[in-house]
Fold each of these.
Amino acid sequence: AMDTDLSSQDRKDLDKFIKFFALKTVQVIVQARLGEKICTRSSSSPTGSDWFNLAIKDIPEVTHEAKKALAGQLPAVGRSMCVEISLKTSEGDSMELEIWCLEMNEKCDKEIKVSYTVYNRLSLLLKSLLAITRVTPAYRLSRKQGHEYVILYRIYFGEVQLSGLGEGFQTVRVGTVGTPVGTITLSCAYRINLAFMSTRQFERTPPIMGIIIDHFVDRPYPSSSPMHPCNYRAGEDNGAAYPSVEDSQEVCTTSFSTSPPSQCVFTVTKAHFQTPPPVVTDTLKVPVMGLAFSHQLSSSRLSYQPAALGVGSADMGYPVLFAGGLNAAHPHQLIGPGKEGGVPPIPSQPAHGTQADQERMCTPLDGIHYSAATPSSSEDTETVSNSSEGKCGSPHDLLETIFIRKVGAFVNKPINQVTMANLDIPFAMFAPKNVELEDNDPMVNPPESPETESPLQGSLHSEGSSGSSTGNTHDDFVMIDFKPAFSKDDILPMDLGTFYREFQNPPQLSSLSIDIGAQSMAEDLDSLPEKLAVHEKNVKEFDAFVETLQ
Amino acid sequence: RCCAPSGAGPAMNCRAEVLEVSVEGRQVEEAMLAVLHTVLLHRSTGKFHYKKEGTYSIGTVGTQDVDCDFIDFAYVRVSSEELDRALRKAVGEFKDALRSSGSDGMGQISLEFYQKKKSRWPFSDECIPWELWTIKVNVVNLANEQERQICREKVGEKLCEKIINIVEVMNRHEYLPKMPTQSEVDNVFDTSLKDVQPYLYKISYQITDSLGTSVTTTMRRLIKDTLAL
């Protein structure tokens, strides 16, 4: 009955408008993430091929991808066209930034004139899209892509999936156009938390201890389409399909071209530790855990879950375990929740990329107190922690996040502040400048002396930064360029910022290094009374010394 | 293109939108251009070419990205040098007026879209506004480079919000003048440009007398609060 109200010509026109609107929407979005300024000419004489009276170029590959995703269908209720924009670093970590959704709802406007009003309103909506694509955070990120990261797009059709955007993502509506068959809505959901990404599994399943290696590759989309880099140049006069791509992107493209989109997922979460009662301070030894992320997990998804998230389970106090990185020399075994879960060891693979990767290894597992080289059942680990618990008293949360490498910057900073950018986690460059950490005292958790870094590593991070000199506090959108007010020399790889960063990680004093494997907390506590006794014995000497000072 | 002013304020059916920004002196031009261009992007069409029997075809509007030098911000404008020149001229005058009014400048610039209603001689044509955009500007003075850097970013973020606000208004699909016949086209559109056709518009501005140092102090305090960790 609805269709009889609309003449067949109008219906045909409307379908055509919606189809080309969808294609132009994709073009505008992808072109806005190419990383360069777009410029098209106005033309007073209509050319006939400029849909919606707007000069929007058609990048052939993008049209091809969009048509493939649509597969002859049009957006309809429950069938939305989504353009996903994500970022991928040169190390292979990726993160979803935005999802642009073209949706259709059931609210019909029967009175509206298709060939005129709908068409003009679709044109207006495209103009709004042009404007809005420049004001979401990903625009500025995309303008700076090329060296350390690239921006990728992916088109899919079906149900909108927003869970990859992290917590607290924001939505902006671009606009709506009513038509006789439904109302077209165009909106964008974008990530604001650029530092951390929680896994989908993490949110859906109940927390369990340890690591889950998920070799599950498929995304829950009806069509898992490959990702593509936004940034490539289409030749001016050739409509040829695949223009050349920069070297750094070639790696990305090839790794995505035939496989479903891959994702390395990281969670930095609360770590629950056993701690002794607060009276013990300077000799507190806390197992220092680090998080090493495999850069090589291109075909599996690594989920990292804390023992107990948030409320409850304070009595569990499981130490947080983590995945070892991959390194030909140290194949590490991951500790899983249970033997029956069968967490297989990650096979060692050559480190991806440069030498720097190999050196970016976390402290080997055998150095960590609570680690078990053998896969332990949850009971075993429980025993271990419970035994400490007996000696230490009730556990309480200790740290929000713990990293053990290259945290030399702590030495100069107030105890509670950590510069994420110095830490070797993916997307560290996007992290907020200051993260509140409880008890992150370098005396307590001494940083590992940094391994020798390759110059490449330094320069890879030269743009990402902790520029505390700018005085920026927690921005939702973090400035990732560290621009010292002077002496930025594009020719030399070593600019002031790099110099500053490289030399703010001095090796730690040997007197501060704590051999974690050697002692346990329990031993510390045991040795305390002894130490106190010794001091008491010498109290007269101390008093005499104090007298001499006065 | 003279027409009698339509009265002291907006006419009854004219919708009015007000935006406010606080900027440093050197950011005034770019901020105003960003807002005005964004509005005009939505309020310009391609050139009409009338054919016989009252039908017409519409030319193509090109667009281009503009990066701001003094604000961490970029916007899209219509690709028309004539239009850009006209806006820059108006904004330049506004900025000069703000500056010469004293260091703590407050003012507003207005972009009004109107329709002409022809009257018989001896009465002059009437201008009937149908949409009025007012941008209120507070000019602040900043003391050091650090404050300026923060201002770059904050103003950039604010402008992003303004763009979203503008788009929201545009999306309401409220009153727009009817598409005119060939004889009426100059009563609705500015047909003087060679590549695009904006609705008839005029830009005016007012400088408010400085209210003393209260504005600057507030802004400075805001920035200082932001700096305090």
Amino acid sequence: MASQYDRAITVFSPDGHLFQVEYAQEAVKKGSTVVGIRGTDIVVLGVEKKSVAKLQDERTVRKICALDDHVCMAFAGLTADARVVISRACVECQSHKLTVEDPVTVEYITRFIATLKQKYTQSNGRRPFGISALIVGFDDDGIPRLYQTDPSGTYHAWKANAIGRSAKTVQEFLEKNYTEDAIANDSEAIKLAIRALLEVVQSGGKNIELAIIRRNQPLKMFSAKEIELQVNETGKEKEEAEKKKSKKTA
Amino acid sequence: MAATFFGEVVRAPCRAGTEDEEEEEEEGRRETPEDGEVRQQLARKREVRLLRRQTKTTLEVSLLEKYPCSKFIIAIGNNAVAFLSSFIMNSGVWEEVGCAKLWNEWCRTVDTTHLSPTEAFCVFYHLKSNPLVVLCQCSCYVAEDQQYQWLEKPHNPGNHTQSNSCQVFWLQMVFGSCPRKNVQVTILTCRHVTDYKTSESTSSLHTPFLKALKTQNFREPPCCSLLEQPNIVHDLPAAVLSYCQVWKISAILYLCYTDVMKLDLITVEAFKPVLSSRSLKSLVKNIPQSTEILKKLMTTNEIQSNIYT
């Protein structure tokens, strides 16, 4: 039945599916994993870095992008679609600032991106954007925010979420481990993001990229050394926890 | 004729059918000599040949007649092949006994002489210390017309004029016309999770996951749950399993549903429960070393397309 109703974006199937939108969600799963954590005073974005070809410049392969000084976004899915969405979002951030003389709120820019995506699910001759995005930042009121958008144009606020390949595994990990203690301070929130990513990233710290925004501070991208340090610390804590557990059972 | 929104030109249906139209259609269906020639050339090109790779000579009999075995393990698809390469083939010395050379529209590899393990398209090995264990790694797509023997007549490389109501070659090449009943066949393959039919939403499924389908003669308990209806198996794994069912051979297919069809560590590791099966248990030696081998295999294949990030 799907084959009769999946060729045009504007056609519903008899049981209410928009197959092109669902297929776009499959395209998101082809992108590498992204995890977002909303802490008390920090927001963290962690991504699984894509392996680049030998002759390719690594700097041109980025999953985390700043939309404005206080908002940043990470995506999973079609690279070219992400570039277009990010470009439109950056322009909107500046346009808003010039018009209203206030920076965008995280919710505003998320809604803008979601509305853009929704338009492409309802237009003739266009296909949906094949990306999901995690948008993080701080508003003027100092409250940290984390939103997720998907190809259908829906958006929701989250405490922690993951998108892309193996997102389900990471989401289950977060559901078990996201507690008030886990986000008690900034370094705990960062470690939680790393531990969540290490559930699915097999090759360790060298394939992880991390970015944080603290209240009233701009986006900070972690260097490879800083990430390696964090991964090693997380590894040591995990070993100690396992030793304690085995002592208790013995 | 009518044009759709996307620029396709389609024939508009017409209920006022006329005799002239039917005659035109008949003429279109009649084959010209040139068409026949092209069809024969294509049939010759699509022939499957079983070769000894080192000598490039054709095997005169089917593979399992030449190399009788009690265990036959087939990996179809790159994830299954990577699983066997990492977890089974490091357990001993495996000698290559043949390779299947075939061409179809999906098969990109043409040169069979310089193949790396991950791009080898259909290679057969047996364990030197126990030649009754034969393994097949099939990374290429074996088309429908290449899977089954044409049951009525024996295989004749010169005979290409027959129509293809049944398909030819691969199974005849491997199993022969009268396969042994005491061989146990294990097939490993992958399929995209969107092919899995279930009342749950696919986003709620814990991919990758393993399902099994076995022949009536397979008596052991499978290493995972059985594939539920109305799901079906496709392509070469289905051909092998059907063949085994018809010939009353004990066979089991382990099908991994994944959302990543390219070579992927998590998908390959999803096959691990199969290591506890009777066929494979004795062949597994060093799992940590296997994991290392698998990681190395992944790194060599890790460079991804730039389309998805």
Amino acid sequence: DSHIQYERVGADVTMKCGSMDWDAAVTWTANGTDIDESHLNGSYLILKNVDLSQSGQYSCYEGSSWHLKYQTSLRVGTPPKEPVLMCRSNNYPKGFYCSWHLPTPTYIPNTFNISVIHGTKDMVCEKDAVPKNRCHIRYLQLFSTVKYKVTLTVTNALGKNFTTLTFDEFAIVKPDPPESVVAKPVPNNPRRLEVSWQNPSSWPDPESFPLKFFLRYRPLILDQWQHVELSDGTSHTITDAYAGKEYIIQVAAKDNDIGTWSDWSVAVHATPWTEEPKHLTTEAQITETTSASTSSFMAPPTTKICDKGAVVGSGAVAVCWTAGLVVAAYSVLFI
Amino acid sequence: MAAADSPSTALRRRDLCSRGIRLAGKMRADVVDLLDTYVEQQGLDASASVAAVEGVPLAAVERWDEQTGTQRLLENLAAYRAFRALLAQMLEEQREQLGEADAGLGRALAAVLLQVSAFAYHLEELLRLESRGIPGEEGDGPPPPPRLSLFEQKLRGLGVLRELAQWALRSARDLRQLAKPSAATGTAPGLAESP
């Protein structure tokens, strides 16, 4: 007969060779390899202070006949620690889901059992196929002041543990981040960026349960974010961007009335529109710097631009100027 | 079957719903602030569970999305009329126990009571718009409840304010349902005849 035997890390394990007498001559193997006699006490196999590497198939054979007398699969592991449980509603008002994991592995199989109670009512949390450490539940009532109590119990052959979460319906509402965030420069506006996004597709009814949004943006070269909170709409125009600087932009969402902010959306990059530099000498190599909806890099012109015939700005005065990083630096200084 | 809305009716409904949503939002914010003050000044545990108390309308509802517009308005109106009476009673009890420290609480209660009254009136306006009869208020209201101990009064007050906060949330959602463009056609479930 084949057995499975679970033992704690650090335990001392004694294996008997089935019904063989203590003084019978036997040979033990671990994963097919003979075990040294020093580990035997008569026909018993003694493993002291077992560790994870000693998990495996142990077999006991009768002395000279080599008949297999006993076989067991030793699984060394640990009892479960208190599991980590999280519940969240990203599809309010439809329902919520709970997901869990163990803070450290046990190295042996575990079973999880979840119970959800609302007042005196037991509710069924339906397990998801994928991922398997998750279940979801439909709200049967809305606007209740009665809290939900979720208890997760984890059990394995070496012990059990549990954790409990208690919360209000509205406290766990956290939408998914906004989707399809797009940032574009605005033609002829060197300080503007137009940002648009969509409600997360998991939010079932944005008309009845509108979301509000939080936008953050900064030039790549700076660490400090600018923030804007928007109570409606799924677009916003940034009007104070530094000219010519590449920006990183993110958006988060929250139900208008309850719950917490979503995680930040995927970041998008954009650079405000810049005027095409005027030409030029024949040796000039000037990269096109027209508007683009993705990050664009403006290669600074390397040639002094001076055309007495040209009129720059107001006033009929020809001005010689050197474009590129110097201008950009001045822009930053004086804005 | 309700006749199709005239444009002016639809416009008026949308306007009343928008204002109602703003009223409900303000009311909820003030009730949440009041709850914090109430818990602190009454020496209560904010996480204490309070059993449902008779006479306090519960905001909890099943199949909320299936309610008709008329149901929403009538249930809201009944609730806020009840809260009007409950808050008036809380204010009375507060005045009986009034110390200097509680004067602020009394004022906050009175301010919320005013908003509750205003919201009830707002709901009546919406019902009038739908040519629905406004249900009469029951005489002088229900018989006065048995005299509670001071601690029971405080717990009851906690329950009242919690339910009111949830009602304010629900009302905003209800009004958004009512304000949906489909309601303007008069054939929407928002304002269908109740069975």
Amino acid sequence: MASNNNSSDRQRIAQQRLSRIAAHLHKHEDGNSGIIAKECKIDATGSTEENKGTVPRKRQEIMKWNGWGYSDSKFLFNKKGQAEFTGKRYRLSGMTLPSLQDWFENTFGASVKHKSPATPVLNASVVPPPRLNEAFVENLKATGIPFSNEAEDRVFRAHGHCLHEIFALREGKKFERVPDMVVWPNCHNDVVKIVELACKHNVCLIPYGGGTSVTSALECPPEETRCIVSLDTSQMNRILWLDENNLVAHVEAGIIGQDLERLLNESGYCTGHEPDSMEFSSLGGWVATRASGMKKNVYGNIEDLVIHIKAVTPRGVIEKSCQGPRTSTGPDIHHFILGSEGTLGVVTEVTMKIRPIPEYQKYGSVVFPKFEAGVACLREVAKQRCAPASIRLMDNKQFHFGHALKPQVSSIFTHFVEGLKKFYITKLKGFDPHQLVVATLLFEGDRERVLQHEKQVYDIAATFGGLAAGEDNGQRGYLLTFVIAYLRDLGMDYCVVAESFETSVPWDRVLDLCQNVKERIIRECKERGVQFQPLTSCRVTQTYDSGACIYFYFAFNYRGLADPVHTYEQVEHAAREEILANGGSLSHHHGVGKLRKEWMKDSISNVGVGMLKSVKEYVDPENIFGNRNLL
Amino acid sequence: MTTCEDPSGYKQEDEFMDILEERRRSSDLGHALRTFTPSPYRGAPPLSAGALNRMVLESQYLRYVTKEVAMETGESVDLVREEASGILDEMSQNLQLGFIRLLGFTLSKVFKRLFSHININQEGLNRLQQAIQESPVILMPNHRSYVDFLVLSYILFTYDLPIPVIAAGIPLMDMKMVGEILRRSGAFFIRRAIGSDKLYWAVLSEYVKTIVRTGYAPVEFYVEGLRSRTLKSLTPKLGMMHMVLEPFFKGEVYDITLVPISISYDRVLEESLLAHELLGVPKPRETTMGLLKARRVLEDDYGSMHVYFGMPLSVRQLTKGRVDRCEYNLLPRDLPQRPSVETQECVSWLAQQVIRVQEQSSILSPWSLMACLVLQDHQNTDPGEEQEKGLSWELLTQRTLWLKGLAISFGARLDWPEQPPENQVMASSMALHSSVIRCHQGRVTLLEEEGPVGAGPFTTEEGVVRRARAVLMVAAYRNQALHVFIRPAMVALAIHTTRSSQREDIYSYFRFLLDLFSNDFIFITGRSSQDFEEACSLLRKCGAVQTSQQEVTSPEEGQRTTSFLRALLQPFIDAYQVVFSHLCLEDVEVFTERQMVPAVRSLATKLLLSGELTSCDALSSDTQKNVLSALLRLGAVTRLRTAEHSEFRANKPAISRLADTLAGRLPVQTAPNPRL
């Protein structure tokens, strides 16, 4: 049933996309920017496919300029006070969510009466005028690569999705520094030209992929006096070739996750790499931040998926000479690029593993009486190396959060069944509704094996007191991760600020880390005058042989605070210190950016920092890639 | 938050209330059988002693150490495990509410008989109750008497707070019945000399850590390790301290709260025993018979007892920036790990901090102040004529009232009621001590212990010991007040000895004193300059010194204060000098502690008889041992590891240099000790 649902979803999405793409093409023909889109030279493989990616050059035409995702999709409280999700793109789209308001008001002490609306349109006066490098612009024009220095384009690329960035956009604050221009290369060779020109004219380049960074990585260093050019890779979005013998695909790095999957699906393949941001984040961005996908148990994280990387640096192009599945040729140069966060160059093309689309997919969930039991179960699953494609453990708060997103139940029968389930778990099994947690599962493979696998996992869960709780609970758990960023925008409409952050930690410290970090957040909020109890929630999102990835949500009602963002940042800083003191890593997959630079030295030692510095010095002595991330 | 001005958090409005008052009014049985529903940390469920022991035995840590010990000794793992289990059985508490009730009933009876009041600060209990909800709590009382043992449990029972688990010494366990009673009241027993017994350490530390981690009961232990026989604070012992703090350092608990508790007695039950021990009459083994014989103590009046529950100290806050918890990231948490130097220093600093708070919130009786003055007078009088003369009551009254003013201005906390008149307060305070002091015909004199009936005349040496016994008993009460005066006294002595007005010279001698005497008085490492400034400001407040940017001088009108303060330190200086001169004798080369103590004692006796020495503190074995520890610490004595007894070698030039510096014959060498 689940797989049926999925495929019909997929069809629907594909159709929507086609119509939207048609619209984009029209826009291009209008040519209102006066820029000539010139196709790259035909590649060796002969791919002449038209650009049909989801992301247009003018991103603001389909995406919010001051919030998450598509302009047509947002949560709001309607006149009756009920929450709704607008648009048609998602499973929740067009539905009312009757319990969200109660949950929202009770959790945050917020009220739908206290609105904190955002500035509706970008005020051009808050954007500093571009500092153009005329010689560079002249040379660039000659190449025919499209570019722009309009305020909207520049502002859109001046930020990622950190709380302070979005908050500032909503408030209409004045920008200190934004890119001075945006260029849209169409292919690898365009990038080579741009980087050459940047070196020649001493221009600062900041690569921009999906723009979903949450580490201040896209922020322009305010001290940068050179012309800053945002290199938007969104138009480099083709699959150049597909190799069914070796099961690899060669892809341009600007492609975003949903397009990559869609295009591969058309040929019956997938990468299986599904970070929570996959709707918008790009392949190049994944490489540059060492991304992790929710199904990494089957497919691996980005570093496992990548076979070959081509990147353009000020020193020239870096790539390997073959596609051997593993090599012993000194330190792996891919690992200089993986996680380089745009400080060394631009990833232009990537060869990555592909897999046939799995025959069968099934969601599932298990309820545990306590978080401790759930963690013990996940640990055991990891020990037996039988983790399904995805297995996540949501704490009690997140469980309730997920429940608040239940759409209106149409039939009395469903209502009745829900009631029965609840009765069974809380009354007959004696689970405390304020303690119980839920693990969400996603199985993939051929039908028989999925069912077998499912049984194995449920058997392990049973030994830790876990009860199977149905597919629906599981699916809703994953839904939450895709709409959470939209929900943050809703919160910000009502004086609630929120953010998420992650870490990875050895198994034996998981419980203590979760507990201490939550406690630290609560106490820090109190000390800093936050007047309402904050929401602190966590989930174990990935399991490894020796540890797990933990993902935290943190939100509070900021009414009564003079500078909520500053307060928020102090608390987040404290939370990160607590993570490190409890043996957690600086980051599992978000990266370092500028947000967490201060801890790099302690994290990787002085020598480690020195090694990275010396690579940077060799590859980019003039600091052309001057976003100042990492070091 | 609590480290700066007044770490004890003492406020004027802190009011004491007498818990015995209620007991004298209502039924003790009703009290013992009251409903008892304390709420522990995070509502932790009660943990039976058996379940706790199982948790300890099955811990990864113990398994690991068991295996290691088995490898080292060649015994089988099972055998070692059994051994560990045996250690645990010997150690473990067996807290039972029924016993607490029985004990509550008995203690009500006993306490009412012994004490006129047991005063506690209720505000402190409220704070404690709050703290217990928030994080695991460590109760850290000072240790002055065996009565300390169960009084906290008694109070917590009365106020419906979780009964603590108490670390006790093994000797107590060996007393028939008493051991079992204590065990069932929540005491667990620790061997005295653990040395390098790896398995024992492992069992003990896992036991303590498990209690802290689960947080079902507060842990109570004496950071001083032993009962202080001099009623002065003792150098903190850090073993337990490390054990209780480790769960925080390793992130197993969010925070740990230390609650310093000051227990002050008007009169200590064991006072005469203590003096005997200090003079070398060996401590009687703690037996049940001994305790029963001590029943006669029940017939005496011991005045009031004060229990002050200090401001809870958050370990997390206090160690912020001092401990990098990341140091535990690279080893599995279940494995033993030696803490880094910074962590060790921090733990030691924390312990000193707790002792400072205990001192600051202890309550002084009028008698403590009188004891200072009586002893100073005694020191200044020739032993020959002293018996007839003594100190006149009027003079004592006048001086005590002056001292009371000084003590209050130095921040002391006195138990000095507004009614009745001051004279009477003093008289009744002194009356509690009629076994050593008496006011006869307007003269206050010390009493000597009478010899056994029918014993013949005693030698002059025996006479010295008898006098010394009385002096040391009084000195113990003087010692209770020393913490109030010690830092200003050191400044006063520094001004006097250096004969300089240069702040720099005075400060360096002050530091020298802090360093030399840091076994006798507990100072906080790294705080010497603050201590100096605070002492100067106290002295300035009472007109005893004048300070400028470069100078510290003592004006004529401050002489009374400064000479009193110097005289307070004199007995210790004398005692140190006696030990120094003994160690500089030609025939002393390599020695053990057992050899040193009687030798110093006989030297001191000789000097007392010849009148060259006027204070008896040099006879006190505790002081002598402190000198030895100080010399070891300063490198003037080295330890030679031989056989079972440590042997020491004296570095005579270094010792005589110390002696000369102390006496002001040599300037302080400016090789500052990095510790201070």
